[in-house]
Amino acid sequence: AQSVTQLDSHVSVSEGTPVLLRCNYSSSYSPSLFWYVQHPNKGLQLLLKYTSAATLVKGINGFEAEFKKSETSFHLTKPSAHMSDAAEYFCVVPGGGGSQGNLIFGKGTKLSVKP
Amino acid sequence: EAQVTQNPRYLITVTGKKLTVTCSQNMNHEYMSWYRQDPGLGLRQIYYSMNVEVTDKGDVPEGYKVSRKEKRNFPLILESPSPNQTSLYFCASTKLAGVKLSEQYFGPGTRLTVT
């Protein structure tokens, strides 16, 4: 069965420093993978998605993620954090049973950005 | 404007009183889904629908019902709500690209409290 693990529940960085949010997945096939962001009291917005076209995926707001099959990882990075990046981030993988409709969300990583 | 709408946005109810949360999208998307979000657990999928009259259980379907009689609407029904269904609920929709999902568009959320 597919699963996704976000390795940190909370990450704190200073403004202007790099961001790394870690995600490992478990899948019996090469999956699609997504990162979503949720700002406080808001709905979810897609940051980026991997669909096997390229291993390095660029998303919105300067975020990117690299799919590494050998490490079963899809970590999210940004070179320089901004105060507006403070939010909760979710790594998502389609679930099991061969159905792409069943989506599995990680438990989320809350990113804090200090001035 | 392309959007997913949910109603009501906030609801306080009592144990056992049937309720329906509506979800509607204006993007002609085939796929719709319901999630609940609880602190420390991320989002968990309740039910999803790949098209009209086609629904499937997600990871936490117990205590919920759905129907998909029209493409644009996907109501979530709690026949006999219980306090453990107190949560933040999100509806989402997306188009299907073959059997793969594209970006999901999320509604603003419905905060439900069952006393």
What is the topological layout?
The complex is a heterodimer of chains A (115) and B (115).
Chain A: E1 3-6, E2 10-14, E3 19-21, E4 23-26, E5 33-38, E6 44-50, E7 56-58, E8 64-68, E9 73-78, E10 87-94, E11 103-105, E12 109-114
Parallel strand pairs in A: 2-12
Antiparallel strand pairs in A: 1-4, 3-9, 5-6, 5-10, 7-8, 8-9, 10-11, 10-12
Chain B: E1 4-7, E2 10-13, E3 19-25, E4 31-38, E5 42-51, E6 54-57, E7 65-66, E8 76-78, E9 87-94, E10 96-97, E11 100-101, E12 105-106, E13 110-114
Parallel strand pairs in B: 2-13
Antiparallel strand pairs in B: 1-3, 3-8, 4-5, 4-9, 5-6, 7-8, 9-12, 9-13, 10-11
What does this 3D model show about the protein?
The complex is a heterodimer of chains A (115) and B (115). Chain A is globular and about 40 Å long. Chain A is mainly β. Chain A is 0% helix and 52% strand. With 115 residues, chain B is mainly beta. Chain B has strands spanning 4-7, 10-13, 19-25, 31-38, 42-51, 54-57, 65-66, 76-78, 87-94, 96-97, 100-101, 105-106, 110-114. In chain B, strands 2, 4, 5, 6, 9, 12 and 13 form a seven-stranded mixed beta sheet that branches. A four-stranded antiparallel beta sheet of chain B has the order 1-3-8-7, with no helix packed on it. The relative contact order of chain B is 0.32. The model of chain B has no long low-confidence stretch (mean pLDDT 92). Classes of the chains: A mainly beta (115), B mainly beta (115). The A-B interface holds A 9, 32, 34, 36, 42-46, 49, 51, 90, 94-95, 99-108 and B 31, 33, 35, 40-45, 48, 50, 56, 58-59, 90, 92, 99-101, 103-104, 106-109.
